[in-house]
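dumping these here so i dont lose them again. two proteins, back to back, each one seq then structure tokens. dont judge the mess
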Amino acid sequence: MESIFPWSGIHRLLVAWTIHISPILLSTANPWLDFLPPSQAQSLASELNDDLEKYCATAPDLPNSTLRIKRLYGFGLLPLVPEITTSALLHIVQQIADLPHLRGLIMGTRGIGRGLDDEALDPVWSAIEKAGLVVFIHPHYGVDASAWGHKDNGHVLPLALGFPFETTTVRDPNFLVQYRINSINAGCNSPHPFRRL
């Protein structure tokens, strides 16, 4: 049995329920599997999505809920790694859509290495839109360490400044407009305006 220490998952859930935060959306702490080769990243993402589904399914229903709403839902993990195939990503999007307690997915800002407006992701965006999934964009990479000079200054400053920069870039309406313009200029008729970010 898991402990009830302040840093334990059970303690955090009890606090959330005590202060009436419910339902709760869970996700991995970080959505990056880019340290793995594509086949391992796909396999691990699939396993983690299944594990999160099982965990959320064990949660009790909200009290007095006639709709049988669970207390826990989750964001699945999309294995955005360089050289992964579109079919592998589409398979994981479908897996997430098919799992009843996963309501969306979490992803970083680099996509498969060339940003979120990479044309290679267009089929993935279409599948996400068709499935009605919410996308949680999570910053991670920060500002390139070379911006701080030749001395190793650790990771705090690049992340402290980089996280807000990455988040602002993704949520900035100008980025979204630029994404649509890039898509239209590239001859893409579906710029994926759904943007459930």
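---- next one ----
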Amino acid sequence: MCSICGERVLSSYAETDPEGRRRCPVCRRIKRPFERAVAYGSYEGGLRELIHLLKYNGVRPAAKILGRMLAQALAALAPEFEQAMFERGMYDQQPILVVPVPQYKSKRRQREFNQAELIARAALKCYPVPERLQLALDLLQRTRDTHSQIGLTSHQRRENLRGAFAVARAAEVTGRDVLLVDDVYTTGTTATECARVLRRAGARQVWVATVARTLKLASKYLGDEPVESGEEDSKVSEFEGLKVGA
């Protein structure tokens, strides 16, 4: 697994950097705006169904379960959180800002909730050291709606999201460490753009944590970033008939 993005990589394609971290071909070629991305599990089976119950069927109690899963995933980042606090020094022990990936206002009205926010709230209640994390709502905003990412190349996906996010209150981000939270990490385009915007606003460093991620094989994508087969929001109709008790 790549130590930066968490992608699967064949051992013959993996290289270890001077710090002992294994990097996939993509993370060797480009510098990610985030330090590391972690996830609880693979986006398949029961985990995928649970996310769909929350996201497409509005079964909000599912967020509590997903939040506990996210809190477990954060354990992998605990040493880095500790190191960040050590680097800031004893006179700057501000908590890490937890920023959910935002929705565009029309999508928020349609769904009536942001699943990333619900999951983040639930995770903070389960995190063993809650005072180390601070939920920061509406700090990152989605400024425009975007087209479906289906069939787009890596470059087209980046351009589709370019300018779609903005930091509402830059003074609150400057010099702070940030944990970006979402439900699923697919190609990493959204996480990368959000992290880029946060860093430009002055964030010291950014980590990414999701409940699930779509695992591909980074070694197959030497010429480009991995391309996800489709955008989940375009498949809402597929799950409209999903029973709550399924």
